Amino acid sequence: MSNTIYIKGILRMIMLSNSERQVAELDFFDRLFAQVSPSASKCKTHNFTKQIKSVNYEFEELDTRRVQMTGYGKGINPRDFILLTEERIRYRVEAIDYYSDPANLWTALLFRCSAE
Fold this sequence. Notes:
This is LAGLIDADG homing endonuclease. 27% of the residues lie in helices and 34% in strands. It is α+β, with helices and mostly antiparallel strands. It has 2 helices and 6 strands, in the order ααββββββ. The chain has a 6-stranded mixed beta sheet, with no helix packed on it.
């Protein structure tokens, strides 16, 4: 268990047993932890429209909204977006797993959002 989650849990237990004043303090700690949490970082959009399918990436539709994609690149994280087609269709990265060799090879579960 990470120290941040452990400390936040202890703060919740202490503060939830006290008055409304502490609830405001709890909200302060939630905002504080959100600012330092890696998951709170800004989402990026990665443009793959100039990449060649089956050369630079593989793309498999799982259903009408979900796709699995395997490609190369660094810095792609959950909640980021990927543009794939000339029509500028945008997909949100729901989950991503980087391979150990080569380190910049990854596979991801994407959700179709909309045209940009």
